[in-house]
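Give me structure tokens for this 234-residue protein.
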Amino acid sequence: MSQHDQAAFAARIRNPLAEPLLPGVSGERMAVYEELFFNNLDGFITSGFPVFCRILGEPRRRRLVRAFLREQRSATPYFLQIGEAFVDWLQGGGGAEPGDPPFVAELAHYERVELALDIATDALPLQGWSPLAWPLVYAWPVQRLSADYRPTEPPAEPTCLLAWRDREERVRFQQLSPFAYHLALRLQAGQPHLEAQLDLAEVSGLAADKHYFAHARALLDDWQRQDICFPPAT
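Here you go.
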């Protein structure tokens, strides 16, 4: 098959309603390839984004997957990175239709995090913030969304979460207070513990007293127990 024919073959698979058949290839034969490619992608999206797909419903999901197959030009050869490309496409407005829930892109991102952490190749450090611990912030309460809970307006306060993989290879999530989220961001960026606490107290307008440091210490101890952050060597 020539390069031109390969491009025409791929174009037909991506968009069978608009692209012509290759000369000498029957519609029935081509339909086998079209269905195979679509079903593989649809199955991956359905399994990788279960809440997202339940909220959308099957007809809308299939239209969205069809639009993704037609419009997105992924450069990765790795099947497990399709989810990342799908999220990027959604965040750029790909496949949007009137009536879609306003939180779909954030929900897809949240659901993608679990697989991304599961396949990440980083190791737990001996000290400092784990590269397998990701502070996340969303306008929508993504961890609560479901087919029965579909808010139309975001809450007044953002949803701060922490996703991480522990030494038992479990991917876990917890909701963070704004204070904990901003402390996590500073530690993730490599700021020393004491400096991060002092700077955060200043920008937050909090008194850096014994109660403040006791609260921060309890948070850091909890993060250490959960394989999120490890104290520097003394």
